[in-house]
Design a protein that fits this description.
Chains A, B: It comes from Kribbella antiqua. 2 copies of one chain form a homodimer. With 263 residues, chain A is an alpha+beta fold. Chain A contains 9 helices and 9 strands. The structure holds a DNA duplex (30 and 30 nucleotides).
DNA sequence: CGTAGACTTCCACTGGACGGAAGGACGTAG
DNA sequence: CTACGTCCTTCCGTCCAGTGGAAGTCTACG
């Protein structure tokens, strides 16, 4: 390219992607300076690239002058085959579950050692929860995360148990040995639970979804407490999870071999 | 840049965006050659850029060698503030409507002269419909489209009525005068209907959603026929639409002034 | 009114981007 | 088996698009 390049080897494409990826859930809008810093680009370079991205609709500007991801990226992003098959097939079942319980319902897959929420239904009367579609939450503090980890390949599980387990609430379990026990228990019981481990006042139950024999996703539900109706919830979850699994069994269409790789 | 440039003025950024935008609903996966052609780039240039985008996770490759939008773009796209406020607020109401009717429920906004579907709920037992989230369908053949156009500014409506109205089924209305009459009728009645105008065997009813007095979106429902329960559906839709409108009234947070601009 | 912080514009230098060409890999028709 | 077509991949000489420091603008604040 030119002049005094600060970072030889950085291509325009990588800079462009870096700018787009600078946004995340905690930072859905950024100022020019923040964007430049997060993408690790000189201000004037960032300014030029951002101006063009904005002109093209890949970024947009709010009234206040901050930048946000543009409508064009929304269009494009929706076309990514991120578990489209599971999501599409599961959708009606999620609605049924929601209708039956009026609690927040989650569909998640494993992404590295975190639970990636690929769908969510939440009502006016549901317990408030932190997850959104696209959120990634720690596996050890969520019902779906524990289920997915319990059924994960051994190396993944080993790595997950040996990496630091952040305490999120006073009830978050951070001892690897206790989690190890829980994971074994989950395989026996067929479901996982959390009790205020992710957020206070929220408990969850989750079960695996299987395509043939392989666990491909997890289905979870968030409620204020588990005392009364854990059994009823597990039953409802299992009905839905089996239904989804059965529907998944049939179809065969072009799809990625592996899970999307982490950044 | 260099050598013999075929298209002086085309920047790397614009080429990158062109490649990403080459995908659409009808073409969610493309071969290298198709991508190059659709983005209007020389094959080798496209190849180089695509290879890097793939390396960065902005694109991905299927088993068969075709390219698809990458998981990274999914992450980014979800952060675009495409009517996030309306969508978030409306979500629980859509579920209620779905639970009450078990029919496909739609939330749409006007995008140029088409209806952009920003949310959708569809069950196992619903009438099959063509729309997906992110779909853009012609205004004159959809319930939500007619509602939005009836309440659109005069210049938009004029332009819509004077542009070609494609026949989609034998029942699609393509005479501007008849549509004009319908639009006036919609303002009086407070709802719009379609009868197999978009797809055979599917009818729809739709009502406007208002923030204060301004129509910001439309809520629609798709059913096999309207004879029996049009009144009941309109009532249910209005309850939900008013609820959404009321909830929208309150909030104030950073948001784009205008609708996302078309490509 | 000076200082600070964020944004915008300018422009001379140069190395990253360009793309034609050539070389594989695969399928299929003769 | 050879020839041809289609698609993908790699190579490399040319050169202009991209770079980023510097200077200018615009608010906001004390």
């Amino acid at each position: 390219m030119a002049g005094r390049v600060s970072k030889p080897g950085a291509t325009v494409v990588s800079r462009t992607v870096a700018l787009l990826s600078a946004f995340d859930e905690a930072h859905p809008h950024l100022t020019l300076t923040e964007l430049a810093r997060r993408a690790d680009l000189p201000l004037s370079t960032a300014h030029r690239l951002i101006a063009e991205l904005t002109r093209l609709g890949a970024l947009a500007r709010t009234d206040s002058g901050e930048y946000v991801v543009g409508p064009r990226m929304w269009d494009v992003g929706l076309l990514a085959p991120v578990q489209t098959d599971v999501r599409e097939v599961a959708s009606p079942f999620l609605h049924d579950l929601y209708a039956a319980t009026l609690a927040t319902v989650h569909l998640a897959v494993l992404d590295g050692t975190r639970a990636l929420y690929i769908d969510r239904i939440s009502g006016k009367r549901s317990v408030p929860v932190v997850s959104k579609i696209g959120s990634r939450l720690p596996w050890h503090a969520t019902g779906v995360g524990k289920v997915l980890m319990a059924h994960a390949p051994e190396d993944v599980r080993k790595r997950a148990l040996s990496s630091p387990l952040r305490r999120i609430t006073p009830y978050t379990i951070t001892q690897p040995s206790r989690l190890q026990d829980q994971l074994e228990r989950i395989l026996v019981d067929g479901y996982a639970t959390t009790v205020e481990e992710m957020s206070l006042g929220a408990c969850s139950v989750a079960v695996p979804i299987r395509r043939r024999d392989e666990v491909v996703a997890a289905l979870g539900i968030v409620v204020p407490n588990l005392r009364r109706d854990k059994g009823r919830l597990v039953a409802a979850l299992n009905v839905a999870a089996h239904g989804i699994g059965r529907s998944l069994g049939h179809q065969t269409r072009p799809r990625l071999t592996r899970l999307p790789v982490r950044r």
